[in-house]
Amino acid sequence: xxxxxxxxxxxxxxxxxxxxxxxxxxxxxxxxxxxxxxxxxxxxxxxxxxxxxxxxxxxxxxxxxxxxxxxxxxxxxxxxxxxxxxxxxxxxxxxxxxxxxxxxxxxxxxxxxxxxxxxxxx
Length: 122
Fold this sequence. Notes:
Layout: E1 2-3, E2 5-9, H1 19-22, E3 24-25, E4 30-34, E5 39-45, E6 51-55, E7 74-78, E8 83-87, H2 91-94, E9 95-96, E10 99-104, E11 110-117
């Protein structure tokens, strides 16, 4: 499932009044988004048990695994009824091309979305 940003926030202090209402239902356990390193991907768990989400790491540009071969996947366990997120993922560590991937253990009752930050300050 490819996610486009819900909104681009530009550093003027904009707020999001109802994050959960802005999210969309996950239709797949494989979520991809264009990652510039300025994105936050939110995952709301509407299920009765915990949901596991994994931001998938990639080998370095030299083909070596990150972190001495143990991998650098980032894993969160989101309790029932709660919202978790991954923020500002370094493209060199998490992108294949310009896409990052988050895998869910199940898509049932999961709502997801991406916000992007772009500075307008010069």
